[in-house]
Amino acid sequence: MEEQSAPKQDGLLRQDQVEVCERVTYLEKKVRVQEDEIVCLKSAVADILRRLNQVEAEKAQNSILPTKPVFKSSTPHKTTPRTPRRTPLDNVYVTPPTRHSTPPSSAKSRTPIKKWGSMTNSTELNGSHNVRRSVSQTNLLSRSQQKQGSKDPQWNSEEGNLRIYLRGRPVSLYAPSDLSDYSVDKEVTTPDQKLQLEYVFGYRGRDCRSNLYYLNGEVIYFCAGVVVLHNPEEQTQRHYLGHTDDVKCLAIHPDKVRVATGQVAGHDRKDSKKKKEESDKKPHVRIWHSTSLNTLHVIGIGDFDRSVCCLSFSKQDGGAKLCVVDESNEHELFVYDVEKGRKLANTKGSQDPVLAVEFHPSEPNSIIDVGKGHIQFWTLESGKLTKKSGVFDGGTPSSNTGPTKAAEGSYYMYTKVSNIASGSRAVLTTESASLTASSFCLSFQYHMKGLPGTLKVFAGDKTSSLTSIWEKSGVQPNPDQWKNVTIEIPQFNNPVISIEGTRGNSFRGDIAIDDLILKTPSRCCRKWYVIISTS
């Protein structure tokens, strides 16, 4: 009986396991659906709060609208008929520069007269023209004083405008029709009302990417130092004004509520009486709420150089991390904890421009950045970022140099000589491999097109210096074709083989190798691959 009951129990247990697995799978699907519903509810609530805030702001604005000021005057002012509106060009008057006539020099005296300014001291000049120069100096001083006085603000009661000078150019400001008199010297207190930004025209897209998103019924983008939230249905705008200089990049949090924006470095304003703090001038990232427009976090002050070019939130862990790339020479990559604002890791990236950076959608510690001629895969482990560079199946990024495809298969190795100094070397060696004491044959295919440098093969004993046994320099015949070479390597006790590529004087000097084979003389007809490592 026990032997018969055991198979039944096993069958029941198996059936229970299947039912449990099916139940867990069903619950997982249900949780995912509920997560999507929660995100939709968050978006709907954010839209409702935005509309409520907009209605309250409109009510408050209507209740405190300023009335037009009324000025009383004893003498009535007759206004001349003019158009109700004037364009900025109508209000600008440019006075032609006055020409000062120079006194004619005496025909008898050929002594050259030095050029001098209105503030020149007459005692510094000598000769027979002291008296005449003193009179001319007095005239020039009076003219300068008149000219300086004419640049003060002037009220024209006949035309009803105030003329001021901006950078030496006169600008006429027309007064309201009910203003009969205005005193330039009268001191008045500043008004309680302030100007409010209503609409922004323009969009920055010439030097940045990922700069336009659709968020909760609004199109979000940036122009100069303002982040615009445009409602296409109502044709209204809201503006985030937390940045101190031009915004360069934008990212949306997975909760569809928070937004991260990065800015460029600010400029010093020596003319301003109140200087800005040093932190405001440095490039940084601001994380803010898209509904209330309140700043939540300010990240990276003092970490970035020049500006922030791209950034992205993590996806798998709900946006707990933020990766940022700046526009320094090395395009450094940073990873931050969003809630704490703490830097988790940073490392140098690429010397070429970086166009976008993103977290992997299913791996929270994997980051991918792409740019000019490169794609890089980063892994965040124990506070460090490790890189693996992607290899393109095809030609090298630079034009008129390098192969268009691999000699064998889909991959090959090449020296990228862009943005590095002449004479730089790339070395491929067998130092980490344990080779037996024997003679070898090394065969490979190489490609040298454009203005390449030098490709060398070295061999020798591990305990001594290596000797050059093969070398090619400059452009080779039929540069578009791969060339095969076989090199006999002498016998050494501790053999080391090294291939070295040296950059020439041009960025069009990529050197490529492929189909690398190391074999013993007895197996020259067979391929015997050995592990090769870079150093």
UniProtKB/TrEMBL annotation:
BP GO terms, sorted: microtubule cytoskeleton organization
GO molecular function: microtubule binding
Stretches with biased composition (Low complexity): 95-106
Source organism, top-level taxon: Eukaryota
Residues annotated as domain MAM: 378-527
Region (Disordered): 66-133, 262-283
UniProt entry tagged with the keyword Repeat: yes
Species this chain originates from: Mytilus galloprovincialis
Biased composition (Polar residues): 118-133
Hydrolase among keywords: no
Entry-linked InterPro entries: Beta-prop_EML_1st (IPR055439), ConA-like_dom_sf (IPR013320), Elp-1-like_TD (IPR049813), HELP (IPR005108), MAM_dom (IPR000998), WD40/YVTN_repeat-like_dom_sf (IPR015943), WD40_repeat_dom_sf (IPR036322), WD_repeat_EMAP (IPR050630)
Name under which the protein is recorded: Echinoderm microtubule-associated protein-like 1/2
